[in-house]
Amino acid sequence: MSAGGRVIVYSLLLLWSAFVLFPLYWVVVTSLKLPVDVNAGPVYVPWVDFEPNLHAWRDLFVTSLGDTLRPYLNSIIVGFLSTALCMLIGSMAAYALARIEYRPTFGTIVLFVIAMLAMAVAVGVWGVDWRVSAAVAAAVFVLLARALGRRFKRRIGNGDILFWMISQRILPPVVTVIPIYMMFQTVRLLDTHIALILCYTVVNLPVVVWLMHDFFTSIPLDLEESAQLDGASRFTVFYDIVLPLARPGLAATTLLVLILSWNEYVLALFLSTSKAQTMPILVAAMNAGEKGILWWTMCVVIIVMIVPVILMALLLQRFIARGVLLGAVKG
Amino acid sequence: MSTADVPSGKRRSRAKPLRITGLNKWFGANHVVKDLDIEVAAGEFLVLLGPSGCGKTTGLRIIAGLEAADSGQVLLGDTDVTNMLPKYRDVAMVFQSYALYPHKTVAENIGFPLKVRGLSPGEREPVVREAAAQVHMEGMLDRYPRQLSGGQRQRVALARAIVRRPSVFLMDEPLSNLDAKLRGYMRAELKHMQHELGVTTIYVTHDQIEAMTLAHRVAVMDQGVLQQVGTPREVYDRPANLFVAGFMGSPPMNLVGGRIEQRRFESHGIRLPLDGGSEARDTVLGFRPEDAKIVDPGRGLFDATVYAAELTGDVTLVTISLGEQSLAVKMPKEYEVDFDSRVAVHFPLERGFLFDARSGERLDARLVAFS
Description:
Structural class of chain A: mainly alpha
Mean pLDDT of chain A: 87
CATH architecture of the largest domain in chain B: 3-Layer(aba) Sandwich
Largest sheet of chain A: none
Number of domains of chain A: 2
CATH class of the largest domain in chain B: Alpha Beta
Oligomer: heterodimer
Distance between the termini of chain A: 31 Å
CATH topology of the largest domain in chain A: MetI-like fold
Helix content of chain B: 10-25%
Largest interface: A-B, 26 and 33 residues
């Protein structure tokens, strides 16, 4: 590239970086302003336009440390645990869908749905204990499926299962949030970590399955067959061959799912009241207090909220490199 | 596998015979393997030869356990392995794509079969080193597959297959991704290695040169059906049917369509007497280009016209036209002839074959000299 071209390219990149980074800078600067300075309008240069002040930081981390720390820890627990759970279940499901052909009959699925409905009615209408109801429903389903399974002819395939999974994301979460709230109320798990972790896991599962399915199918089948012939069990193939090769996909998906659950708002709003409250709720609460909108504290919270995700991104970024499959097959 | 199974030093494999009976495989409505019966002796090198899509690779994958047979049996030694998982079958396979694990070094690749059998790194090391030495890769144990050339990857794949001394070696076109020069070299290496190890080997290829040079016996397949099994010489010199005759050799056997009538084979400008009585039927006459020679008109078995002559290096390949058909004759490289000149073709009568035109089977009738 000529020197002139280089100048143009780098100036464009510089311009774009400034464009992208400015909001972050604004947030940092605002977190250091006194309320008067914030209200004085858009001025950005510390020590020139205003005198930096740590009052907002002091408010959050000295005066009311407990109130800040709890949602922060909650977010970390819920975000990381649900991501881990989601990746664990999701990648195994995706691998199974990528490599094993499933041919469940349509009738069996209908039976399962009926059993689930019956269980819901038993719990909701007749007030049966949900554990008892679930056990009975499962038993009835297994027995019926075994007895009637051979009569069903129409079958669905892996593609249908995959589509059904992703179709879970078609409904906006706000539509399902009331039923979910009622369900957790019934099982007395409102305002607990476990409720949020389970919810986020289920909500993000389709994303993981869908993305990882793509990564797994891109791994040459020869490698897995070769490993099988070398004497590896299905689990060893998955653990020792497939997972290392899917590492870029795993890293990218983990990051995406972590960000999704980290920023999740609607479900957290309904399912947590105080003990399990997460960071997005805390941020939102800042503009509804009796003291008006607290831009300065909000900015502090936003900054601390961004940090773990950035750290994870830096950590995972080195795995999101191409060329992992180089040298596997052909020349 | 315990350490006792992998003694160090010069080790020969516990080669086992392999028997396949009545094997059938369908892919949907596609009958890809039809009633396949093959027996492979312990230590034998059998080549499954056929055009692409003839079912040879599917057959190999059924032996490996990567594909389930719809009917039939695979016997390895005295064990019925038909429904056994690949990992319990004691077979090793070299894939066309090599299938090296890209995230593992050469040493880890070669040692993988031992690792999954629970050998400790200390136990693995000498065995891996020996297998690597056998394929001349001992200096590259720390490299990754992406740092190797195609030929080197091929060697690593071989080493990974031999490292655990399997009872049966399966190879699916292992040389087809190499360039021509390397392929010739690796072919010799393979043959030498198989001889040294004495492993029962089944080798799939569409390349008849590979089949001829490597095999103890060749099994020719077409459209899922086994056409002929025999030593390379038998398959080449006594093809069982038209398909084998037309597939083997380059150029393949000349085939002239005609009819048997009154103990004579008759075709466009050809009339050759037969020894045995054979009823009248449509017949194909076959003879190899290298068995035939071109002589002056009227002095051969039949007259024809020269269509083209090409010097290929070691021979001059003369294409002659006989009616609608064109035939190939290999002549010495010094041979020169004018295009469109009238010539005659001659070949030793015992080198001519007659095939039934409808079934393709070779007939017992032989050509004899004019009486």
